Amino acid sequence: MLIPVLLFLVGFALLIKGGDWFVDGSVGIARRFHLPELLIGATVVSIGTTLPEVMVSSQAAMQGNAGISYGNAIGSIICNTSLIAALTVAIKPGKVNPKSFSLPTAFFFAAAASYAVIAWTVGGFQRWMGIAYLTVFLIYMIVTVTQMKKHPELAEDGGEEGAGEKEQPMAKELLMLLIGAIAIAFGARLLVDNGTKIAAALGVPDSVIGLTMVALGTSLPELITAITSLMKGHGALSLGNVIGANLFNIILVSGAAITISPFALPAEKLLPGGLNSSLVIDLPLMLLVMAILCLPALKTGKLKRWQGILLLCIYAAFTVYQFVS
């Protein structure tokens, strides 16, 4: 049991550091070719920070482990919203620009609603559905980049980040890109393999491990970014970043996993009466926490402390429920 736990933690560390190297290398190369800062942020960085989730879910899908593949994507959304964003909002609420969030919010709720409806009515996901989600991802990226070019004022801090950083040698940037990708792939393998072993040893369903431990692990880069942002006095974590990450968890992470290996909705955890916990708890909670975070902010243009505190309480209750029920 000790070895799987240690290897599980090593997988976490490789995902975090690999993602960091991958983003740094890819951003450096993108800047070298004088790509606009907004374009880099909307494409290279966004995809790079989502790579841990993509690799973990894809690796699990290839191994036929639907529990971790499903749980990682849905659990990451719940974690990003009710832990990471909630923590920053509870500590230091801030203002948001509702206009800049209307597009990603609309895409998220449309994608999340379709995902939930498919799960509730069909009970599983076919390959064409995964391809459809990946197509939506491409459409979203194109629309987002086009909108940001036409309306750069909608982007927050869009060109300041990294403006004064010293340019690295291209060989170093390529090496960081390569090592980062390898570290992410290897870390994902360790996480999935040993997460499955830990779940079996504890008698915990794979979907619970995916919804909690794996989801938190793949969301650690966002958590570190949020804490760093607070320490530097930047206030609340950008609501747009959270919405974007959550959207990618459905259309990119789940889309890739479903395309690789279609799967039925996990039914490992049942409620009294034989009800599937994924249908009754996980999917509704995913929509609820995003509604609590987004809807008031989009209406008033402000994030309130009560939202963060409420979301943190929800996450704590959700985590306890997963392991004690």
Note the topology:
Blueprint: H1 2-32, H2 37-62, H3 66-91, H4 98-121, E1 124-125, H5 127-150, H6 170-202, H7 206-231, H8 239-260, E2 263-264, H9 277-300, H10 305-324
Antiparallel strand pairs: 1-2
Offer a quick outline of the entry.
The chain has 10 helices and 2 strands.
Describe the structure.
- The protein has 325 residues and is mainly α.
- It has a single domain, classed as Up-down Bundle (A middle domain of Talin 1).
- Helix content is 79%, strand content 1%.
- It has helices at 2-32, 37-62, 66-91, 98-121, 127-150, 170-202, 206-231, 239-260, 277-300, 305-324; strands spanning 124-125, 263-264.
- The chain has a two-stranded antiparallel sheet.
- Helix 3 runs antiparallel to helix 10 (305-324).
- The relative contact order is 0.23.
Provide the domain count.
1
Largest sheet properties: 2 strands, antiparallel
Number of helices, counting only DSSP H or I runs of 4 residues or more:
10
- Poorly predicted runs of 5 or more residues: 157-163
Provide the succession of SSEs: HHHHEHHHHEHH
- How big a fraction of the residues is strand? under 5%
Query: How is the CATH topology named?
Result: A middle domain of Talin 1
| CATH class label | Mainly Alpha
CATH homologous superfamily title: NCX, central ion-binding region
Q: Judging by the overall fold, what is the CATH architecture?
A: Up-down Bundle
| Radius of gyration, CA atoms, in whole angstroms | 19 Å
What is the approximate shape? globular
Notable features of this structure?
single chain; A middle domain of Talin 1; about 0% strand; globular
